[in-house]
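#structure-requests
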Amino acid sequence: MDTTITSTGGLKVSDYTIIRNSWENSTILDITVKESDSYDTDATPTLTYSSTSGRLRSSAGTALAAFSTKSQDRANPVAVSAAAVDTNTAAGIQAGDKVVITFSEPVKTNPNIAASNINQIIPLNNDHNWKDGSEKIGSTSVSLDNKTITIVLSTNTSSPTVSVNDSVHIYDGEDSITDLAGNKANITGNKVQITGSF
């Protein structure tokens, strides 16, 4: 392609505003768009090009033909919040208290989160633990819209050590949380602090 042409004329990305274009090489054009006001890691916008208003052409001078193509979801889901939910009036963690983790898009777990793997899939900082003194949790569930994971706590023998202000990390290994397209959440840069109260 003729990399001297960087005009956005003719190019449109559905639901987004193009900020700039830059050629990575003679066959790859990077298109930068303005971020959405909401979390959109599952967005798959359509890229269209109009040969009438566009000036893109090959290095030999052949005009680029009009096209329309839908993008693929290659973005990793991220945890955007984690909130403690006190289900009773007693101070501290009681059986039935919850932590609700909200994600940027619908997610799934593979395998399901259970007492046997919760500290691996959703590790906490400070060496804290989701499990009670008998190595149990109450339950875990994914919401109907798949955007939240709720962890119900147990207090058999003793309470778990998870606490408000702990950082929740998202593991990206073999057993992991992914979006519906299979993109894994990433422990390296993805952590959220637990807010709310028990």
